[in-house]
Amino acid sequence: MTIKPLLDRVVVKTEEAEETTKSGIVLTAASQEKPQFATIVAVGPGGIVDGKEVKMFVNVGDKVITSRYSGTDVKLDGEEYSIVRQSDILAIVE
Hints:
The chain has 94 residues and is mainly beta. The chain is built from no helices and eight strands. It has strands at residues 9-14, 37-43, 47-49, 52-54, 63-66, 72-76, 79-85, 89-93. Strands 6-7-1-2-5-8 form a six-stranded antiparallel β-sheet, with no helix packed on it. A two-stranded antiparallel ribbon has the order 3-4. The chain is globular, with a radius of gyration of 15 Å. The model has no long low-confidence stretch (mean pLDDT 85).
């Protein structure tokens, strides 16, 4: 099964959260922050959103930084993904 985002949506696979701090303290799952670094898995076609034309500036495979609590988390075939708007992507990491 595949995910095909619509309009200005982007499917990203987030990187794993750090389980230990730099000083070696092990963090529980509840205290770990949601990762902001992700890899783009699928990109919507863009189009007219809220009466304005949206052009897509990201591509599949780009490594990006997203807003901390943006998007919708989904699980498909045992993998976890987030679906975010292109405007929730803050930067492309090169």
